[in-house]
Amino acid sequence: MAAPESPPPGPYLEPPTLPRNEKERLEALRSYEVLDTAPEPSFDDITLLAAQLCGTPIALIALVDAERVWLKSRTGVEDRVQMPRDTAFCGRSVLHPGLHVVTDTLANPQLAQHPLVASEPHLRFYAGAPLITPKGATLGTVCVADVVPRQLSPAQLRSLEALARQVVSQLELRRMNLVQTRLIEELQTSSERFSVIQHATDDIVWDWDLATGRVTWNERVSELLGYPPQDVRQDSGWWPSLVHPDDRERVTEGFRRAVHGGKSVWSDEYRLRRANGTYARVLDRGAILRGSTGAPVRILGTVMDMSEREEMRSRLALADRMASVGTLAAGVAHEINNPLAYVIANLDYARQEVEAAATAQVPPEAVELPRALREAREGAERVRLIVKDLKTFSRPDDARLEAVDLRRAIDTAVTLAWNEIRHRARLVKLYEPVPEVWANEARLGQVFLNLIINAAHAIPEGSADRNEIRVITRLDSRGHVVAEVQDTGAGIPEDLRPRVLEPFFTTKPPGEGTGLGLSICHGIVTRLGGEFQFDSEVGRGTTFRVVLPPLAQVRTAQSEEKKPVKAASRARILAVDDEQLVLNAMRRTLGSEHELLLFNRPQAALAWLEQGEPWDIIFCDLMMPEMTGMEFHAEVKRRMPERADEIIFVTGGAFTAAARDFLGHIPNTRLEKPFNPVELRQLIHARLQAR
């Protein structure tokens, strides 16, 4: 094998031209991160071997940088680390890909004047093999040199080329080692961070290796769910077994679709079983890591316990409602005391007239007794309605949804807020017929109470004749139910409008507002699938708008006052209540129409039922001292299970958690105290008609 006996193109005393791929070549060179690094035995062995194979005192691994030739390894040139590219023999090696051999530099007039020939080290011989990467970029050379002319054999030239290939292989291996080292360091750093996060977070952290099926958990899984560490399994089947049966299919199918559908993240909210058998509502989120082919290899995730957050949300909502109740307390007391004043006065008057009539033998009809009693009855009815509205608003939070008449919810709020309105503005109701909505009446009442109080507080006291609060119901173009609360107050400045719905933001002075009202209203409406909007203009007022979808099938609202309906037949009715006065009132109301059996102890009622006598309806108080209505229901269900659901519960308010839970899980009809005789007769009639 003979090497070309010619210098590379271009005069040696002029700067060399650059190759056309110079930019790409330099990027390839720097990608190896080898320039200006310390000597390495693997490269020094190659230069030593090159010198021995070719019989030369000098051997170099030269890398051609932008303006220099840097020596990665050198034998016989200990005082040089780099040299200018335009004067180095190797600097021109990047212009052609083959061997470059100069057997005698003095035989070439140009080379004879070269600094390395004309002065130290007086080179007479040079041979270089290019370092060519797998992608074809020339990085430099493996070269040998001597101070006397020399001729290399074909075997020596092939050996020089082989050594050049070994240098490139070493560079590739070196780069791979660097990448691997960095990956290991990053993995260690990542693992350390992951470990810190696992210990620092309040969430459950899990790591699922899809290749092995192994799932590891941090210690929070034991703390939040109550499972001892030895019971926390690492197989992939443990987690699905804890998901609530009603959620399991949805959650596992969503997880499967995310993992095998190419997604990078997955999340779901569901119920997870604790060790004690109860369920925690959790938010589970996972990041899906994929390999080079896109196949999932690992999933890292966190499980956040939402139970405390839900409890906090309920507590905030309750706090806001209680703040509203505190604001209304004086007004509500005023509204109750007014009718009570004339109830008491008229009842006193009626008593005195009856006593006088009895003494003077004057018939009561001849005096004002009937009118006084009617007025007393009207006053008592007003008290009953006010208390009913208060109960509707302040009952504990629950998730029960039902068909709700929006106008009824607004009227409830107006009743409670009336004392805040009356001294500030005229109230105008513009109710267009609208269908019922699917909602929670107490929560809607809270929304409108907040909006109406805010509207009132936007108007100064003492100007009721000049200001107005309008409440409007209508349908929009989509057929959705719209309720608006408009005021003629000061309006909301433009710079404050973006913050109106933020939690804890308020323009009221300290101590006069929590800043939670509108934020909670927004949350209630959006959770019902509705929209919460507002418009405002400084100096002209503000409109808040609640938009809700109507029921798919609307029940026609009955606006006529219901008339008493006489029972189709005489019924045998049992009434169980520890308050004898309540039993007396039922006897006076129903005694002429039905057969009543009255019991002030539920045990006595159970003893009568044991006799097997027929009966049609049982009215039972819910809260009694010796035996509660819940316990009475359980006894009836044990003895005659087919009729336990026919008990009608009479309650003045389910004020314990057990009572609320009981009423939420049974189908039985309930009657609120104080009950209206008309409603009582209608309920009996409907029950008898249904049999």
From TrEMBL:
Gene3D superfamilies found in the cross-reference section: 1.10.287.130, 3.30.450.40, 3.40.50.2300, Histidine kinase-like ATPase, C-terminal domain, PAS domain
Taxonomic path: Bacteria, Pseudomonadati, Myxococcota, Myxococcia, Myxococcales
Keywords noted in UniProt: Kinase, Phosphoprotein, Transferase
Modified residues (4-aspartylphosphate): D621
Boundaries of every PAC domain copy: 266-318
EC code: 2.7.13.3
Lineage: superkingdom: Bacteria
Domain Response regulatory residue range list: 572-688
Protein name as annotated: histidine kinase
InterPro entries xrefs: CheY-like_superfamily, GAF, GAF-like_dom_sf, HATPase_C_sf, HATPase_dom, His_kinase_dom, HisK_dim/P_dom, HisK_dim/P_sf
Domain Histidine kinase intervals: 331-552
